[in-house]
Amino acid sequence: MGEAPRVQGGLQAEIMTVLWRIGAGTVEQVRGGLPEGSGSAYTTVQTVLNRLAERGLVVRTRERNVIVYQPAMSEAEYVDSALAATLDSASKSARRLALARLVGRMGAGELDELRELARGLDKGEPGPA
User: Fold this and answer.
1) Residue 128 pLDDT > 70
2) Which Pfam families does the record cross-reference, listed alphabetically (predicted)?
3) Which of 57, 59, 72, 105 has the highest CB neighbour count under 10 A?
4) What is the distance between the alpha carbons of residues 42 and 64, in angstroms, rounded to a whole number?
């Protein structure tokens, strides 16, 4: 998979989080899933969704008389792409230090899960989305 366009700004991130959680939705469904008190108007959410679609992060489909939006990739695929792009642009020492810090913040249970996931990926298993 190539590098995914980056989410830009807080509202785009919140909208993508909602879409990853609900899978697909109309403007009103996405708006309803935003954090309490975000106060984003219908037209603002619609504009952001359309911009995300133009950039390839969201897919639009017409279902009868409404537009339904869904993520173009899973959250895991997006994070993988963003991390890979960031790490690829870093020096070897910076890359190792960043990865060591990420792993260092994990609890023992998470590390065991990560090892198991890595073994599965080595065997060609797809892993969770």
Assistant:
1) no
2) Penicillinase_R
3) 57
4) 20
Please answer whether residues 40 and 31 qualify as being in contact, where contact means their C-beta atoms are separated by less than 8 angstroms: yes
Residue pLDDT, tens place only, 88-108: 999 999 999 999 998 899 988
pTM score? 0.79
**pLDDT averaged over every residue in the chain:** 91
Q: What are phi and psi of 58, to 5 degrees?
A: -130, 145
Phi-psi region of 26 (alpha: psi -120 to 50; beta: other; left: phi over 0): beta
60 vs 12: CA distance, rounded Å:
16
Measured CA to CA, the distance from residue 119 to residue 129 in angstroms comes to 16
- Does the pLDDT at position 122 exceed 90? no
